């Protein structure tokens, strides 16, 4: 997503690779911490035992902390052929997306909502726009910032990414019900066990699929101005609603 966002606006993959790697580090940190007993308490991730089950909770916490800080070091020290102001803008955008205004903030509301049956659609959208969508949006937008995108293009790409972020989460909620642990690579049915309100619990599976498809269609419409250059991002958008894990 990051490399595609950069290339879309005229940048190169080399400009974006350090930030793309940093995003993978932050994503991995979020999964390691999310799987901890104090959070979602999952024993499996990508078909293997989770970090804390192999190395212990102490090392899992430190591993996540190390990945988070190294991510920003990597962007600051390894980004080449990009104006310093764009590198600073990228760091600031990613810090916001992964902190209290983004991923962390969404996780807080998610934890506070567990076991409550009166969670509104507005709250659910807030949780996933921040917990899931903020980092996904940062992938596309940070790449575009590095590539020198205009303010108008950044807005289009932000709307694209926000829409596919929510669509991704809706499909994730559906798969938690319909897929097996082997297919998911993690424990299935965790949302129901934790008493979480999800999109299928509010809308049902069929309406959830329809909503996800509409979000993807809306996302793709944001890329019309880019023509064939947007094909990689369009392909990713289509994959979101067709994936099985």
Tell me about this structure.
The protein is mainly α and 245 residues long. The chain has one domain: Farnesyl Diphosphate Synthase. Helix content is 72%, strand content 2%. Strands 1-2 form a two-stranded antiparallel sheet. A hairpin with a 2-residue loop joins strand 1 and strand 2. It starts with a helix and ends with a helix. The model has no long low-confidence stretch (mean pLDDT 96).
What order do the helices and strands come in, and which of them pair?
Layout: H1 2-8, H2 13-34, E1 44-45, E2 48-49, H3 51-55, H4 57-78, H5 84-98, H6 103-113, H7 121-131, H8 133-146, H9 151-178, H10 181-184, H11 190-193, H12 199-203, H13 205-221, H14 231-242
Antiparallel strand pairs: 1-2
Helix pairs in contact: 1-2, 1-8, 2-4, 2-8, 5-8, 6-7, 8-9, 9-13, 13-14
Percent strand equals under 5%
Order of helices and strands: HHEEHHHHHHHHHHHH
By DSSP (H or I, 4+ residues per run), the number of helices equals 14
Oligomer category: single chain
- Give the biggest sheet: 2 strands, antiparallel
CATH class: Mainly Alpha
Helix content: over 70%
**Unreliable sequence segments:** none
CATH architectural designation: Orthogonal Bundle
CATH superfamily: Farnesyl Diphosphate Synthase
Q: Which term fits the overall shape?
A: globular
Kindly list the characteristics that best describe this protein.
single chain; 245 residues; two-stranded antiparallel ribbon; mainly alpha; globular; Farnesyl Diphosphate Synthase; 14 helices
Short structural description:
By secondary structure, this protein is mainly α.
């Amino acid at each position: 997503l990051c490399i595609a966002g950069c290339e879309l606006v005229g940048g190169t993959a080399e400009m974006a690779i350090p930030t793309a790697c940093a995003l993978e580090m932050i994503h991995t940190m979020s999964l390691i911490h999310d799987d901890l007993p104090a959070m979602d308490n999952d024993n499996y991730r990508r078909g293997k035992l989770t970090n804390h089950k192999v190395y212990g909770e102490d090392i899992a916490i430190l591993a996540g902390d190390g990945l988070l800080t190294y991510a920003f070091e990597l962007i600051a020290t390894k980004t080449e052929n990009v104006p310093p102001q764009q590198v600073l803008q990228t760091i600031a955008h990613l810090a916001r997306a992964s902190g209290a205004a983004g991923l962390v903030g969404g996780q807080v509301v998610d934890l506070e909502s567990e076991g409550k049956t009166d969670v509104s659609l507005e709250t659910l959208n807030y949780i996933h726009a921040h917990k899931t969508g903020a980092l996904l949006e940062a992938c596309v937008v940070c790449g575009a910032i590095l590539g020198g995108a205009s303010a108008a293009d950044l807005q289009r790409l932000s709307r694209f990414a926000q829409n596919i972020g929510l669509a991704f989460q809706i499909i994730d909620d559906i798969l938690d019900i319909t897929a097996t642990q082997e297919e998911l690579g993690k424990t299935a049915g965790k949302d129901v066990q934790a008493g979480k309100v999800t999109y299928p619990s509010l809308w049902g599976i069929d309406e959830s699929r329809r909503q996800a498809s509409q979000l993807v269609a809306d996302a793709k419409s944001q890329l019309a101005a880019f023509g064939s250059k947007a094909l990689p991002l369009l392909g990713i958008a289509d994959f979101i609603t067709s994936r099985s894990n």
